[in-house]
């Protein structure tokens, strides 16, 4: 059995509906592989279906196969694919960018999920990692990201994995930057107008970088953007960041004791 949800914008696209029906076989047999890790991501080109349309480029993310316990859990919970689709639609509704949500597809064996896919549009934006992991990190870009994070939080949005590989950007002609986020299945949305607790906002920022100097700069710019006491916020944010990193390295040392980078921290 196959279940799917489709963005109403694409509900009348015959080629997309045909492609969705072809999953998971078409994923196994075709597409251009662009990421192969815990999850697998491929790019598919759907040929134009009439004289006035253009080829359609679709990114398909197949989430990792579930173990038995996870299969049981997801009988009662939304799947990661469903969460990614719903979060993408809500993110766009609240005025923020992510590669266009197209559909999510689940294949099931009885009540259990067998495979799950999230489909979205292609993007030309690059992730911000290459600009923040170097000694001469771009202060203008970091400050713009801080304002972007502040805007997300003001709208009641927590990404919950806001690291620099999941933040995409592009420079704008006026010298500013446009941002988007990916890997969106773990997001949390507060009702619009409800303030997110400060501790959750800080925790949300801690994953962005492992560098304390960059993190403190972002925290200060974030405080300015939200009209907070800069010194007080920076002190609280850095203290919470240090606790977060210590706990993270402890977990990694326990899970991967032979890895040198965790052993020597």
How would you portray this structure in words?
- It is a single chain.
- The protein has helices spanning 14-22, 25-29, 68-76, 80-93, 129-132, 139-154, 198-206, 212-226, 230-255, 260-263; strands at 2-6, 32-36, 40-46, 56-62, 101-109, 112-121, 126-127, 157-158, 167-171, 177-181, 188-189.
- Helix 6 crosses helix 8 (212-226), helix 7 packs across helix 9 and helix 8 packs across helix 9.
- The protein has 2 domains: 2-121, Phosphorylase Kinase, domain 1 (2-Layer Sandwich), CATH 3.30.200; 126-255, Orthogonal Bundle (Transferase(Phosphotransferase), domain 1), CATH 1.10.510.
- The strands form 3 sheets. It has a 6-stranded antiparallel β-sheet with strand order 1-5-6-4-3-2, with helices on both faces.
- The mean pLDDT is 91.
- By secondary structure, the chain is α+β, with helices and mostly antiparallel strands.
- It is 42% helix and 22% strand.
């Amino acid at each position: 059995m196959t279940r799917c949800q489709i963005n109403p914008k694409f509900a009348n696209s015959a080629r997309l509906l045909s492609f969705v029906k072809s999953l998971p076989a078409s994923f196994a047999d075709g597409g251009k592989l662009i990421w192969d890790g815990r999850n697998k991501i491929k790019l598919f080109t759907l040929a134009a279906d009439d004289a006035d349309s253009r080829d359609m480029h679709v990114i398909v993310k197949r989430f990792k196969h579930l173990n038995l316990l996870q299969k049981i859990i997801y009988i009662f919970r939304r799947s990661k694919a469903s969460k990614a689709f719903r979060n993408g639609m809500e993110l766009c509704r609240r005025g923020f960018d992510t590669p266009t949500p197209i559909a999510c597809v689940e294949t099931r064996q009885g009540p259990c999920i067998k495979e799950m896919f999230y489909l979205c549009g292609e993007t030309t934006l690059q992730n911000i990692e290459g600009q923040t992991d170097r000694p001469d990190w771009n202060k203008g870009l970091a400050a713009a990201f801080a304002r972007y994070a502040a805007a997300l939080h003001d709208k009641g949005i927590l990404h919950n994995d806001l690291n620099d590989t999941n933040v995409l950007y592009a420079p704008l002609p006026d010298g500013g930057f446009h941002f988007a986020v990916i890997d969106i299945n773990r997001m949390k949305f507060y009702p619009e107008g409800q303030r997110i607790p400060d501790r959750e906002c800080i925790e949300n920022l801690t994953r962005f970088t492992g560098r304390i100097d960059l993190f403190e700069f972002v925290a200060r710019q974030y405080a300015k953007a939200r009209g907070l006491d800069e010194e007080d916020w920076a002190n609280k944010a850095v203290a919470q960041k240090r606790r977060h990193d210590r706990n993270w390295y402890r977990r990694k040392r326990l899970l991967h004791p032979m890895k040198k980078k965790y052993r020597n921290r």
